[in-house]
Design brief:
Layout lengths: L1 H5 L3 H22 L9 H41 L3 H5 L12 H17 L4 H10 L4 H12 L8 H12 L2 H12 L8 H12 L9 H10 L3 H10 L4 H28 L6 H11 L4 H6 L1 E4 L19 E4 L2
Antiparallel strand pairs: 1-2
Helix pairs in contact: 5-6, 5-8, 9-10
């Protein structure tokens, strides 16, 4: 009895094997899920859109991570050794000697400051690297500035900008340029020449062209009358649209003038009707030039009577064609 109780009966064995097979089948199904149902075209499009969105999010996360890492490295390097001259020169800064126009000097200053900020220069590095770009007359000017102050004087970036503008963008010149813009007119110049002068001088009078409407009105005011009336009727919404229309109108006007010139070149000149009839009446079919060569002066009586003059006073001599 006890011997048989320790042995597995046939029925128990069958149950055990069935249970093991069921567990194995369940594990297999869990490891290898059944294939999804066939994908429709709409589901496929949605699936591809989902993949693209995931890729976009992943790329944004990667770019953000690398930018933060790069910025962290820059900060650490800046704290350790600062920005080197080579770092600044990688931005391809422009040297400065002198500027023919005040706004050219202002452009150089703004461009240099933007590049100094790009590489993360501190205040002292900005002055050091900006003055490194000065050459010729500008370098001599800065040397004279430095010589006036004690050797231990440290210039800030704001001080450098103020002194640079005082020397290269003086208020007196800016005021003269502003007045020149106020009196700017096209006159006999081409539209493109007027546009170039308008763009150059308008920088000295920003308050007069700081909106599209102000800019258009000022541009129209300086145009020649032959273009002004038609362009005002056009009602352009943007300044560039007005400029394009003015250039096109000028080209049409030139073509019209050229056509008139060509037509006048091949058409015979017409004499006035009164002169033509007088010559024909007095000379008959003769050539008018020949008739004019035979002009002789004859006296002509006045048609009124004066109390202190003879019945017929003589009029000054005038030419009359002889028969």
């Amino acid at each position: 009895m006890s011997g048989t109780s320790g042995e597995e009966s046939e029925e128990q064995r069958i149950e055990r094997e069935a249970r093991q097979k069921a567990e194995a089948d369940e594990a297999a199904r869990a490891q290898f899920p059944p294939p999804p149902p066939p994908m429709t075209q709409q589901n496929f499009v949605q699936y591809m859109q989902m993949l693209e969105e995931r890729q976009r999010v992943t790329l944004e996360q990667q770019n953000r991570f690398f930018q933060e890492l790069l910025q962290q490295n820059r900060v650490e390097r800046h704290e350790n050794q600062g920005v080197t001259l080579a770092d600044f020169q990688n931005t391809k800064p422009i040297s400065f000697a002198y500027a023919p126009e005040p706004m050219d000097a202002e452009d150089w200053l703004m461009d240099t400051e933007r590049k100094l900020n790009t590489v993360g220069c501190n205040d002292l590095e900005k002055v050091r690297y900006a003055t490194h770009l000065l050459c010729g007359p500008a370098a001599s000017w800065w040397d004279n500035i430095v010589a006036v102050y004690p050797a231990e004087k440290v210039f800030t970036w704001e001080e450098f900008k103020r002194k640079f503008r005082e020397s290269n963008v003086p208020e007196s010149i800016v005021e003269l340029k502003r007045r020149e813009f106020e009196s700017l007119e096209q006159k006999d110049n081409a539209i493109l020449t007027y546009v170039r002068e308008f763009s150059k001088l308008s920088r000295y009078a920003v308050e007069e062209v700081n909106t599209e409407d102000k800019k258009k009105k000022r541009f129209l005011r300086g145009l020649s009358p032959q273009f002004k009336v038609q362009l005002r009727m056009m009602r352009a919404t943007e300044f560039q649209e007005l400029v394009d229309a003015a250039i096109t109108l000028e080209d049409d006007f030139k073509q019209l003038q050229e056509e008139k010139r060509k037509k006048a070149k091949y058409e015979p000149k017409k004499e006035s009707a009164g002169v033509s009839r007088a010559v024909h009446a007095l000379t008959g079919p003769e050539n008018g030039d020949e008739a004019r060569q035979r002009e002789v002066p004859v006296p002509v009586p006045y048609l009124f009577r004066s109390c202190s003059a003879p019945p017929y006073a003589e009029m000054p001599w005038r030419p009359v064609l002889s028969r």
